[in-house]
Amino acid sequence: MRYLELKIPPLALCAIFAIAIPGLDNFVQSASVPFIGHRIAATALMLLGLTFAIVGVVEFRRAKTTVNPLTPQRATSVVDSGIYRLTRNPMYLGMALMLLAVAVWLSTVLGYALVPLFCVYMTEFQIKPEERALLAIFGQEFSAYMTKVRRWI
Question: pTM for this one?
Answer without folding.
Answer: 0.95
